[in-house]
């Protein structure tokens, strides 16, 4: 397939599915602007690395992996940033624009460790199969099943509190 045609197909696919990819980025960073930055960087990476997509039928998994890796890289970089003062933090607290309808669920999800949270988001909010999640996260399917089971157990405990 011609490289420019493939780039166009990738761009069209990402544009038509941008909401689901945005939700994944947002689930990591909990901030609209940061999630949009991750989307932009991920699109750039996808276009720049179009050769790494062996088969167009794997575009969904391929781009999810780019989103997840870009989100993780973003969070690693953020750990090196000095925290801001309380006034700035307070200004962020007033504009929560999340996709979760249940505040208790949101709080419980926010408190889950990252490796458990992403499995729940991909499985239940993005409706991906265990095998797809394993491929995206580059993990064994049994590892994903175990994380999913443990994350649901942790969510139940947190929701009961």
TrEMBL record:
Name this protein carries in UniProt: Sigma-70 family RNA polymerase sigma factor
Stored CDD domains: Sigma70_r4
Organism: Clostridium gallinarum
Location of the RNA polymerase sigma factor 70 region 4 type domain: 104-155
Domain RNA polymerase sigma-70 region: 17-80
Pfam families from the UniProt entry: Sigma70_r2 (PF04542), Sigma70_r4_2 (PF08281)
Keywords from the UniProt entry: Sigma factor, Transcription, Transcription regulation
Domain of life: Bacteria
Lineage, broadest ranks: Bacteria, Bacillati, Bacillota, Clostridia, Eubacteriales
Family: Belongs to the sigma-70 factor family. ECF subfamily.
């Amino acid at each position: 397939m011609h490289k420019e045609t493939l780039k166009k197909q990738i761009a069209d696919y990402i544009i038509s599915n941008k909401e689901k990819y945005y939700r994944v980025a947002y689930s990591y960073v909990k901030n609209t602007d940061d999630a949009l930055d991750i989307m932009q960087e991920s699109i750039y990476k996808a276009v720049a690395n179009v050769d790494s997509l062996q088969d167009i039928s794997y575009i969904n998994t391929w781009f999810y992996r780019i989103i997840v890796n870009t989100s993780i890289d973003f969070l690693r970089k953020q750990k090196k940033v000095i925290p801001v003062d309380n006034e700035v933090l307070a200004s962020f607290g007033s504009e929560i624009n999340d996709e979760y309808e249940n505040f208790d669920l949101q709080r419980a999800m926010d408190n889950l460790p990252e490796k458990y949270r992403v499995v729940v988001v991909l499985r239940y909010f993005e409706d991906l199969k265990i095998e797809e999640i394993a491929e995206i996260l580059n993990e064994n399917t049994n590892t994903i099943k175990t994380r999913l089971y443990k994350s649901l157990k942790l969510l139940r405990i947190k929701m009961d509190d």
